[in-house]
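Record 1 of the preview.
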Amino acid sequence: IIPWILIGIILAAILIGAYFTFKIPASPPDTPKESVLELSHRVLDFGLQSLTSITEKELTLENKGTAPLTVEKILLKGEFPEPFAFPVTFPALNFPQSIPVNGKLIIPVSFIPGTGKTFIAELEIIHKGHKGENGSDTVVLRGTGKEQIEPDVRKRLYPNVPYVKSISQKPLERPTTWMK
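->
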């Protein structure tokens, strides 16, 4: 009887070991899918620009979530939004635009001051996640127009040379001294 008990214990140990060794692991729980919009800038500052210059900067919208994201529309708002614009050639003005997981949408924004003052506006990005939930993010746009921006490169390179403020911006003529 004792040998049969030993054989039974050994068989039980083998079966228990086989059970834990070959047990099929449970599938991991499904992670909830969500869309996460990340902006490259919260403020696009165009700085000081001459009145007729056209300055362009890019705003990147990136979906860092686990589900597609839809940009429903982009609104240009504020007290003085006129100097800020999207280029006419920007094809993504056809909304809605879908951004896949880890995908990007690059939005070019132009600034043409026209008058000598500081302009502040907002871009409101209205988006929708895969479950239909709405969201919005805002980017501040800022820029200043100036009548004439004088280049200071000459002053840094040649600090001791006098200059006349004229249309040509040429240095004053100095007599040439010849050395023997």
